[in-house]
Amino acid sequence: MKFEVLEIVNSNNEKVKKEKEAKKLKNRIKRLLKLKCRICTLR
Q1: What is the per-residue DSSP string for 10-24?
Q2: What is the model's pLDDT at position 12?
Q3: HSE on the CB side for 27, CA within 13 Å?
Q4: Low-confidence ranges of the chain (pLDDT < 50)
Q5: Residue 15 has what pLDDT?
Q6: Cα separation of 5 and 7, whole Å?
Q7: How far is 18 from 13, CA to CA, in rounded Å?
Q8: Which strand (E) or helix (H) includes residue 40?
Q9: Cα separation of 4 and 29, whole Å?
Q10: Distances (CA, A) of 41 to 17, 23, 24, 30, 34
Q11: CA 18, CA 38: separation in Å to the nearest integer?
C-alpha cells in the first residue's frame, strides 16, 4: 500500500516538474521575442 502511494506521489512530482520546465521555456521564448521586437522598433 505504502509503495503504491509513493509511486503516485512520485509520478505527480515528475508531472509538476515537467510542467514547470515547459512554463519556464515558454516564458523564456516570450521574453526573447519581446526583446527582438524592441530591437526591431529601435531601428
Answers
A1: HHHHHHHHHHHHHHH
A2: 93
A3: 6
A4: none
A5: 94
A6: 5
A7: 9
A8: helix 2-42
A9: 38
A10: 36, 27, 26, 17, 11
A11: 30
